[in-house]
């Protein structure tokens, strides 16, 4: 198996296929154009400069293209950089495809789907169950492929479903320890809380915000969807308002984007479970390549903190 | 015409009908019960104590009852108080009704309805026009009677419609001076921005928050309604998202309850027009009884400031 | 079994023993002294006024005295109040003792001690294990009896140990779902994080802050104790600093009293587990007497929010 | 008529006169000097690099020089850049002057002066009228030429007067709709509110802050001027204090630079009118070149928001 | 010498003259009026209730009246209260005057005046010296009698001058240790920084804010006065702006009322010296009656902190 | 004597020895490596580029190496830059040593030690005196050599001791003017307040944070040390807690890193003295090279303000 780009050390030579994640043109001080390429595989990404780039190069080496590169790993401003000695576009017989280079959730889509379906199956309140099942069915295909965000946490293929499955398992453990919690509300709130992201975001690859995502946001989007689902299913109980509230308040505070703070016990706990899973994901990824006795890079969404891996944790 | 309760001076005698707005039982240090009555007419309200209240008195003098009172105006802790000498419930031949004691917008409902209809009529974009007309029709009856809030500004009968009409007139003047503004968006945004209050609030009298008002809030309520209206009218253009955004962002900032800040020019201006009209209303009411050369009471929603009426403004 | 004071409704008659939690003298407008008594049993507390109190009464009905009372439940300013018809001090043959009136953790001290000991027993890192065991032994007696706070959450006898045991169980579940977490660190951090409260607070009954508690605070107190324990046990590894950091940072942010924010993964998660357990405790207690379809009183440490119990949660 | 620099698209060729707004020397990685030129005309500005710049070039191509350039429009880091093919200083027979390249208010100075004079003429309170007229006369020449700021809004020649005139027209509309407002106060407050900028700023071209501007600020400067004017005109009424207050408080809050918040109704409304006109100006300029269906660049003084131009606004 | 009112203990009998600082009418639950009197002498103040007060009593026992009282010290809600047994207005032959009951600076006005004059005499920059001398002369009489505030610190007769003299002595010590400081600037800034309070406040007794104080504030008032003084003295150097800046910025930050933050070294240090002296004054007064081993009451302007007097400080 | 690097003007030629403070590799647009060198002597530092750097150069010109350079001073982006014409490593007979290039406190270590010892000698409370003396002895060697910080203020050799000595002198002056202050507490608090920095920081040269510094911080480190010292010296009085509190609270507020705010008078004053000395140091250094009539660079720890040196201060 080929070594991932994240595992090379300074001075090593690289001879592998990589995917161009981004390609930006610059003009050097000698007046000639160059390309700054962000190259990725499933383990991570690295920057490379393609000097004296022709107009053809700009087209050939654009985003979402697979390339074959040969070069050396340098250290530049605290990060590794790939100094290219050779680059060419993928050829038919190279036998690689884009999916080989994209990070994906560690659990298969089908398994996640099965698990979530089981959680819905266990619900006792039929109003909650029907709304949840209806919306999962309506948006299920995208839901199983979208990332949970464009960056920060679960920003990989199927990250959204993976985040939801982890939260469901955590919710199950928490509600076992605190039996006063209503499992139906908690499970449904978790399954729906970020579902609006399938409309807020553009898709699983090269993810950006849609106009609707920018102007309305995933919270209001899914609150609307719950309202329409209830109308369609002819459900009128307080469950509709309560589910809308759980989703509406899951960012916890107005200044974090929730027009109402949690005012129901399960809404408060949903906010905590969401936070805990998101932060575990950030921390695990940030500390993955950190050696015992060293600090990670600063993690912006964790208040820009740098985390230490104790030396005795071998 | 009878003098309003707000116009009495300390030492004057009162002999008039008033409406009990609130009645709260207390226990005096001699162990006997008393009632604290808030009595109102259209000009304002005053506190009175009914000492040695029997259990019958508690029932007779409860909230929303009209009474005939005789007493004197005292000064107590910076406010006027009515010292009761005589009180009795209204009698059939007193020829007064509750509406006589409630503050109401200074313009008739019918006139406001006509004016708003005219603004809708002038719209050129039929998607915006149809959604606005549909929702006004759906909630028009309540819209013309509800207050705009439980306190702070326009907290009187038909206050919601009165606030909207004032804003529309202001928007017309502003968009004449700044012709780059789109009138359709501005007018529709104004008509819809607080319409969710007919669900958020309990009604025109003794107004409180409903459960849906507390858990979802008028902003998300009306955003949902716009979505349902568009579905019902089979409108699919970007106008739907844009109108939802105008309403969604009209509180201006996340910490003021808008999950998204204004990101469209007309949304930003709508926020300003809303603010300006609300503050004019607060200021005019706070300064109404202040004499030139004196300061008003502190106005809580205006950062608890006290306002001065210059001595040369006779 | 006698009905608890929290379960009486307005209009019902009370004839029971209660403990005076606080007794404050006032002077009525007739110039005579009266006592405001806060009376409690294990279910809650209620206010009562003792009018025309003599100087003897002040002594007889002072704090921490058990009394026999007869009276009626009234409603006053949104809370129940006990209108006394008769009150006398406890008599020898009444056969009640103070402990009968104090709220206590729902798990026996011995069971909690056994559970915590087991968690320590399972630790694999002997430095962490020895420091934890040493400090638990040093302060164990008080630890098993103290509340976790003077108010807000776990403010009852053995509340501190109960909070720790709940957190340990939660930590076990969380670290099973997220196996990258180091259990030793998490368990030790939880056992020690609030242990300084046995010095910060005055004791299990009528709890107040000590001078050392006010000036130094439980966080710095226990950080010092860890340092001294390590010196005593001649442990010099990085475990000492790391344990100190876990305790030091468990309030999460400087403005919440942690001189350093969490900079180790287990410190971050400890902060979350602490928060989640404390809030579950507050929420369960606040919602205990709330009926479905109603809102709780405002809960100050939860940003003064009022929580709703959905009507369909029967 | 020549096409403005803001209207060129990538790939087009430029052959025109431009004004050097700023010229900064850099040293390229080959050790040779180069100049970064910001070139402007009335429609906007563009960056260009002059490579291998000699010491003579530094002098020839300094700030406030007109040049004749030939080159191509490139795209670089999200902005257009001019790649120079030829550059030479202006020649006598080129028949261009600096004023041709500077952005100016869309209304002539004389017309603005006339309009403001008319507003003063309509004032009824002679104290307010005399102070306003005196200060406008004292600083009128600069007032009609200065920008309203060095950046953010109305940062062009005569921008200060243009801002004031727009505000006066808006104030007239507002006070017609809310007749309780005192027009004299509002008009005078508007005319004076930013007049201190003629001392705070260095002048209409290449505008920077003066020492007095930095240390005292335009608010305190004009408050002092009002005091001196009153002394000179021997006016002693409360109007002096009230006018000073209007200017002093027009930033609205202490943290925005007003030592006192508005405490007079007209002061509060002046603050709103100032804000509304400033933001309309920012928004119109930011959206000028944005196409329907696209977002503007981020606007720093509008909380760094990016604004959307709806696709249906053709 | 008579014992001051602050030195009585609970249970002791009082028989002395006191000054009525404030007198407020209330209505008791028996319907009769009573007066709440705040009685003071130079050591402090105490509350007393005058029950069953007639309309004559309201006049006789109004603010700024000296009374002869007999009564007992009680404890009520954490504070001492005087239970009146007898009260009568002062009589001619009682031989007491208002000044006997007012707290005054511990240094004589003449001595303070002499000291400040000496500091001015030592100045070397004649522009600074002349402006300072001119303004001290213009407002000197009031300056020597006014308090420095209505509450919080130096809120006694001649408190303003006393605060300034303490700051001057501190400035002398500081500038000896840090010789880079310009003494002229520092001394003049200190003498002038709060001089506007002679216009902002109503006078030395029963001090309130004037209209000008409320609308303009002491900072802007004295900045204007410096400008007028310079004009009168025909001084045009940068000293004028710099002195204005020192005063303008002495609250340190915009949110604390300074439209500009300190931007000159001596301005920054002036802010610190002002703070240090004000806080020493608050702390000394708050701790005056606190016994070793006890905490003071909460001090609002010190972030509502309570201060501890160590037990070993006998 | 050789001219310091801070005193060269643009255009002047440099021929001197300098110490490499930092050396960072970059890759130029021609693909060749270059080094960015920060060169320093006791007066300041300057940047230089070493183009076309070989791998040998990287080793030869690494951090903490002395070099002989010849070059010219250029201006680049608002700062001076040294354009190298020649560079070579130091040679044995150059007769320079690292200490010649490092900034050091202006007072000799021995003199500072003597002065601090004298302050301890004057203490009257033997508990305070013994703890202070013990800790100074334990960490004295490092204390006299460490800087007070890695940047911002007193960031030079022996800066920590120099900061303490300046504060002691200031404390002496302050406690003379305010005799209610306890000198023992103030002096001991000052000597100990930053002593934890000898563990928090790595050493006097190329100073960074240690792991313990990052995770625990100098405040908690020294609080622990005081506890251990007291245990070692068998001191049990309240002095221990009080000294710990003084150190613990010297950052003033929770959000500035103090888990408790000052709650003892001397703690409050210690915080002020610390601030005043730190800011004087920053201001003096920032203004050192500023000419009268000009502004300094922005000073980040002083809220990013720029300070003005008045033109009349020649």
UniProtKB/TrEMBL annotation, chains A, B, C, D, E, F:
Its EC number is 3.1.-.-. Residues 163-279 form the HD domain. Keywords: Exonuclease, Hydrolase, Nuclease. Gene3D superfamilies: Hypothetical protein af1432 (1.10.3210.10), Nucleic acid-binding proteins (2.40.50.140). PROSITE patterns: HD (PS51831). InterPro entries: 3'-5'_exoribonuclease_YhaM (IPR020873), HD/PDEase_dom (IPR003607), HD_domain (IPR006674), NA-bd_OB-fold (IPR012340), YhaM_exoribonuc/phosphodiest (IPR050798). Pfam families: HD. The keyword Ubl conjugation does not apply. Belongs to the YhaM family. Shows a 3'-5' exoribonuclease activity. PANTHER family: 3'-5' EXORIBONUCLEASE YHAM. This is 3'-5' exoribonuclease YhaM. It comes from Metabacillus fastidiosus.
